[in-house]
Design a protein that fits this description.
Number of domains: 1
Strand content: 5-15%
Strand order of the largest sheet: 8-11-9-10
Structural class: alpha/beta
CATH architecture: 2-Layer Sandwich
Oligomer: single chain
Number of strands: 12
Shape: globular
CATH class: Alpha Beta
Bound molecules: zinc ion
Order of helices and strands: HHHHEEEEEEHEEHHEHHEEEHHH
Distance between the termini: 70 Å
CATH topology: Muramoyl-pentapeptide Carboxypeptidase, domain 2
Helix content: 25-40%
Largest sheet: 4 strands, mixed
Number of helices: 12
């Protein structure tokens, strides 16, 4: 009899210990997401893409950059503005031009509170006969979502879970790679001269100034290029904040990617918007534009973006900047200075707007300071064509993934934005 009891309790312990039964309904979707993501270690970006879509202050990372181009010192009372060091450059290997990783697939994974057996442990269930009626394991108490949970859930998980913008007056808060968006508005997915790509990502949100910019830029670009319109990539999530994949910036509703590709004459289907890839304009050696894909229309497209009022930077691949410099000759144009080299950006431009007047806690980048040479001098471009960038040594051990940002890393106002009631979509 004692043996039977021992076997029963042993079996019970195995069942519970193995995490076989956990009531998932006691966990909020947010916690589930957090746990899944923490366990699943979802790759953030396609391996062929430089990790940093988010230029840091002055975004020139060449060692000889002028002092004014170097990151501004972060005031001590604003810990969130301190930037992590720039991610190590990744060789821009010429693979598929799709700069965007596929949508996140979350693998089913254990839930918080479940005690996991070591991965190599044999399955405990098979060998034991089950003569006794199997009692239900005791219910686990619901885990309350406490403040401390919030602090450890990656901020990208919290922001990605918000499907609608917050109520409140529109405001860009914080810094492009460390901020959020209050009262965001959506760019309609179809306009007279634009169409939004990758609609499933729900990243066609921005500060109203970004939507206004696109509504003006799209027809202007169509006019200067002869294209039917433009294809708009990622803007921001409804409440901004970090994205689970694809970007480091795009957090304050002031950044947008626009593809190097004319809008077609028909309204794209949902599937076309997900599966079409943008065109790579850069040659295989990453030192010049590709004559097979680069056209004068692309130059007009980039220039038109840089000429729009309120634009702080237009980021392009360095080979594209070099070609724009060659075409522009020795003319001194402030729009040319706003076109800056950055990793990736071989199949899209990234337009970054200045902080809007209505956003006192928004932090912008220093104005471009190299107007003398429009950022075109050999010295200004040398870094981007150096071995350090084009053929960096392979790390012997895989680099440790950076610690995911939590809400503690953000301006306190972003916590308010996350907690705010949602505003129903108006378009
Ligand atoms: Zn971008």
């Amino acid at each position: 009899m004692m043996t039977r009891i021992a076997v029963f309790f042993g079996l019970l312990a195995v069942l519970i210990g193995g995490g076989v039964a956990v009531d998932t309904h006691t966990l909020s979707p947010r916690m589930l997401l957090g746990a899944m993501q923490a366990r699943a270690q979802i790759p953030n970006i396609a391996p062929n893409i430089a990790p940093a879509d988010a230029p840091l202050p002055g975004e020139n990372s060449q060692p000889d950059a002028k002092p004014a181009d170097k990151p501004a010192e972060a005031p001590a009372q604003q810990p969130y503005v301190i930037e992590p060091p720039a991610a190590p450059p990744v060789p821009p290997i010429a693979v598929a031009p799709a700069q965007e990783p596929p949508a996140v697939v979350v693998a089913p994974s254990p839930l918080p509170g479940a005690i996991m057996p070591p991965p190599s442990a044999p399955s405990p269930v098979v060998a034991v006969p089950a003569p006794l009626p199997t009692p239900l394991p005791p219910e686990k108490p619901a885990i309350a979502e406490s403040k401390s949970d919030k602090a450890v859930v990656p901020a990208k998980t919290l922001f990605a879970a918000e499907k609608l913008p917050s109520l409140g007056k529109a405001m860009a808060i914080g810094y492009y790679p460390r901020g959020c968006l209050q009262g965001g508005v959506a760019l309609p997915v179809n306009g007279p001269t634009w169409q939004v790509m990758r609609v499933s990502r729900n990243r066609n949100w921005g500060h109203p100034s970004l939507v206004r910019f696109l509504e003006k830029f799209a027809p202007a670009a169509a006019k200067s290029t002869g294209w039917k319109g433009i294809l708009v990539g990622d803007m921001a999530q409804p409440r901004g904040g970090p994205t689970p994949y694809g970007h480091r910036s795009h957090q304050t509703g002031l950044d947008v990617d626009v593809w190097f590709m004319p809008m077609p004459g028909h309204t794209l289907s949902a599937e076309e918007r997900e599966k079409t890839s943008a065109i790579n304009l850069v040659a295989d050696d990453w030192k010049r534009v590709n004559p097979k894909t680069w056209t004068p229309q692309h130059a007009a497209f980039i220039r038109t973006a840089a000429e729009q009022p309120g634009v702080e930077r237009v980021l392009v691949n360095a080979a594209i900047k070099k070609e724009m410099c060659r075409m522009n000759g020795t003319r001194k144009d402030s729009w040319m200075s706003k076109i800056r080299p950055w990793y990736a950006h071989h199949d899209h431009i990234h337009v970054r707007l200045k902080c809007p007047d209505d956003s006192p806690t928004c932090r912008g980048q220093p104005a471009v300071t190299d107007d003398e040479d429009n950022g075109c001098s050999d010295k200004a471009l040398a870094h981007w064509f150096s071995d350090k960038v084009l053929n960096p040594p392979k790390p012997t051990t895989p680099p440790k993934p950076p610690r995911p940002l939590t809400m503690a890393d953000f301006p306190p106002a972003c916590q308010t934005v996350l907690a705010a009631p949602e505003r129903a979509q108006s378009n």
